[in-house]
Design brief:
It is a single chain. This protein is an alpha/beta fold and 545 residues long. The chain has 18 helices and 24 strands. α9 links the parallel β17 and β18. It is globular. Bound molecules: zinc ion (ZN). The site of zinc ion has 4 residues, from loops.
Length: 545
């Protein structure tokens, strides 16, 4: 053992050689590049890619991939990191088929989490239960009488609280419901939810640390090695720094602060910290809400509610002033815009910034979902980044048709048009709104079809992108969107050896197969940081036999 260790440490280079891989990435010209292996230096960076006829270099460690498919780690350009971990650690009630099943899951969760002072969960839907009756405070008291319990309905518009939670919130049978809300037997609807939610204590540092650790585990299990961390609050940022100090950052976070709240803590963008694992790069703003709740700000009224055009969150002058403050401090700006009016406002704001600060500060439009076709070319002309989420298209399709009508959908979720007008495309998922799994995103991007193949032929199929274009948007494009293309997003010489091993050749897989791709191993900086547990990886093979 001692001898082996000595040999390793005195080898001419402590390099790692990965061989016999079915390597796939997009090259700098946007073409698919195939390779068979890579040489990784002791510093965790790529020394070079190997192609089939290259002689094998000497290395301290050689790993044979036996023909398995290897690609760069995915970069999700837009996700909510702490929320991902927080949701995963809460009681999951999605799919409960009866009140009794909800109660059983609650009983199990309470027993498994004795330290949780408040029990929080979400996902119930009484429409799926035999009698369709809403749960009550008494139903929850019967299971957990001594600790506060708050369980959200699947759509987020209602919650049910137990008596202990109502007591701590100071709510009694006499408490009137606020305007725009309802209270009945422990169920709090819409504006009434705040009466309970404001009593829930803010997460402690230990809570945030656990949420961040959980989020990293989930991301790595899906092959996501880099994230544009959106709407990052001060507590989230400090949790990321604690993880960095403790050597527990395994995902690289490009951080966008929540509005201007972090300017005191980080008055300017930070350099890359913790060997390129963390950087404060920008500020996130909101121009409007979302389409489902008719909060997206439209130029013309909603097709299914003609008395509204949605929620405009800022006047032009206000948004300009906020953006000016961020830009003057050197930050990149990422603004949420869903409706065509919001997109037009954000584009105009960025054009104004360009006139003041010069071109190509990589201003980002988050979602860029519904754009007036007349405004599209302005995004490309301004070298702006369209940060889009392919799985929003498949999830939103039927709802978007109702809200907007077909005519207005011509330049909605318009990935191919974005590319054609010269916009820089970056893909992500907006997790936990959607799963952070990048493979459904790739599949949706190339097909405009959901996992069930709907609709046949694809929805507005002219907006499909090619597989190399989709992979680019999810690797190099997402790195570029976070000013990180010089270090991640591809396995080029000098970049970090962040890569994954997957269970099929994603460049050849059919759309349904691409949807079902599973990650087997995830490597960050030349080190294996996640691998699929043996039982879980055996299952699909056995089913396949
Ligand atoms: Zn988001």
């Amino acid at each position: 053992m001692a001898l082996a260790t000595a040999l390793l440490s005195t080898a001419s280079a402590a390099d790692t050689l990965i061989t016999n891989a079915n390597g796939i990435q997009v090259d700098s010209a946007g073409r698919l590049e195939h390779f068979t292996g890579l040489l990784v230096g002791a510093d965790g960076k790529v020394i070079r890619l190997l192609h089939s006829r290259d002689p094998l270099p000497k290395a301290a460690v050689t790993i044979d991939e036996h023909g398995q498919t290897l690609t760069p780690g995915f970069i999700d350009a837009h996700g909510h990191v702490i929320e991902l971990g927080a949701h995963a650690l809460q009681l999951d009630l999605v799919g409960t088929r009866s009140l009794a099943e909800l109660q059983q899951r609650l009983r199990d969760y309470a027993a498994a989490n004795p330290e949780a002072k408040w029990i929080q969960g979400a996902g119930w839907n009484q429409e799926l239960w035999p009698d369709k009756r809403f749960p009550t405070a008494a139903d929850l008291d019967a299971v957990v009488p001594d600790r506060p319990v708050v369980l959200g309905r699947v759509d987020g518009h209602a919650l049910v609280a137990n008596s202990a939670a109502m007591r701590l919130a100071g709510v009694t049978a006499q408490t009137p419901a606020p305007a725009g809300g309802e209270i009945e037997n422990g169920v709090f609807v819409d504006n009434a939810k705040a009466l309970i939610n404001r009593a829930i204590p803010a997460p402690t540092d230990a809570d945030l640390d656990r949420q961040l650790a959980k989020a990293q585990d989930i991301l790595l299990s899906f092959g996501v090695t880099g994230v544009g961390s959106m709407s990052t609050a001060l507590g989230d940022w400090l949790a990321m720094k604690r993880a960095g100090d403790a050597g527990r950052l395994n995902v690289r976070f490009m951080v966008y602060a929540d509005e201007l709240n972090l300017l005191k803590e980080a008055p300017h963008p930070t350099p890359w910290l913790y060997r390129d694992r963390l950087r404060m790069v920008g500020i996130k703003f909101y121009a409007d809400g979302a389409l489902g709740s008719r909060g997206a700000w439209l130029k013309q009224p909603y097709s299914d509610q003609p008395n509204t055009t949605g929620n405009r969150l800022h006047s032009d002058a206000e948004l300009r002033a906020m953006a000016d403050t961020a830009a003057a401090a050197g930050f990149q700006i990422a603004t949420h815009a869903i409706g065509d009016a919001a997109n037009a406002q954000v584009i105009s704001t960025y054009e104004w910034l360009d006139s003041k600060y010069g071109l190509n500060r990589r201003w980002r439009i988050e979602h860029a979902q519904v754009v007036d076709c007349a405004d599209l070319p302005r995004i490309g002309r301004g070298h702006m980044i369209a940060s889009m989420q392919p799985t929003h298209q498949t999830s939103d399709r039927l709802m978007a048709e109702k809200r907007l009508g077909l005519a207005r959908l011509k330049c909605a979720y318009a990935w191919q048009s974005m590319l054609r007008t010269g916009a820089k495309l970056a893909f992500g998922t907006d997790f936990p709104v959607e799963s952070p799994n990048p493979f459904p995103g790739l599949a949706a991007a190339i097909s405009r079809q959901d996992i069930n193949g709907q609709p046949p032929g694809g929805w507005f199929p002219e907006e499909r992108v090619t597989f190399p274009e989709a992979l680019h948007a999810y690797t190099r494009g997402a790195a570029y969107a976070g000013f990180a293309e010089d270090r991640i997003g591809a396995l080029d010489r000098g970049k970090w050896a962040d890569f994954i091993i997957v269970d099929r050749d994603i460049s050849k897989a059919s759309v349904p197969e691409l949807y079902r791709t599973q990650v087997l191993e995830t490597w960050v900086g030349g080190k294996k940081v996640w691998s699929r547990p043996p039982a879980a990886s055996a299952a699909p093979t056995e089913r396949g036999r």
